[in-house]
Amino acid sequence: MKKLGRLFLQGLIAILPIALTVYLVYWLAAFAESVLGKAMRFVIGDDFYVPGSGVLAGFLITLGIGVLLRIWLFRKVFSLGETLLQRIPGIKSLYGSIRDMVGLFDASKQREFDKTVMVTLADENIRLMGLVTRESFGDLPEGIGDEQTVAVYLPMSYQMGGFTVMVPKAKITPVNMRIDQAMQFVLTAGVSAENKKEK
C-alpha cells in the first residue's frame, strides 16, 4: 500500500506542473475569447466570425502594445496613464504591487539594484536568499538606511509575499543568479532546477 502511495505521489508531482500550466493557458485563452470574441462579433458580425479569433486578437494586441512601447511618444502616453491610475485610492497600492512583482520576472530589465544576494542572519549558519531593491536612501526620511545599508526583499516560498528588510552590506553575499531564476528558486522552496549560474 505504501509503495502504491509513493507511485501515486510521484505521478502527481510529475503531472501537476503540466496540468496547472495547461489550465492557466486555457483560462487565459478562454478569457480572451470571451471578452475579445464578443467585441469582434459586434464589429464584424456573426457571419464572418471564426471561433478562436478572440485568442488571436488578444495575442496580436499584446504584441502590438509591445511594439508600440518601443516608441518614445507611446511610452510617454502609457506612463501618463499609469500616473493617473496610481492616483486612485486603493488601486494605487494594488497596481503598484502587481507591477513591481511582475517586473521581478522581467530578465530584460538590467537595473543596478537587480541583484540576487544571500542574507546572513544572526546565526551565521542560516542564510536567506533575497533581492536587493535599494542601495541609496538619500530620498527617504532619516533613520531608514545609510551608506552601509541596503534594502533586501525576501520572498516567501509557495506564495506571493515576503518581507523588505534593511541589512548592513557586510551581511549580504552576491549570488551569480538572474532575478527570475532567484524568484523561481525561492518560490519553489529550492526545488526548482532553474538555478544555474548565469553565463
Mind explaining what this structure looks like?
With 199 residues, the chain is of the alpha+beta class. The chain folds into 2 domains: 102 residues, no CATH class; 73 residues, no CATH class. Strands 4-3-2-1-5 form a 5-stranded antiparallel sheet. Helix 1 packs across helix 2. The chain is flat, with a radius of gyration of 22 Å. The relative contact order is 0.07. The C terminus is likely disordered.
Strand order of the largest sheet: 4-3-2-1-5
Please state the average pLDDT score. 79
Gyration radius from CA atoms, angstroms: 22 Å
Shape: flat
The share of residues in helices is 40-55%
Secondary-structure topology with pairs:
Elements lengths: L1 H43 L8 H16 L3 H14 L5 H13 L11 E6 L6 E8 L14 E7 L6 E7 L3 E4 L3 H9 L12
Antiparallel strand pairs: 1-2, 1-5, 2-3, 3-4
Could you list some keywords that capture this structure?
199 residues, alpha+beta
Summarize this structure briefly.
With 199 residues, the protein is of the alpha+beta class. 48% of the residues lie in helices and 16% in strands.
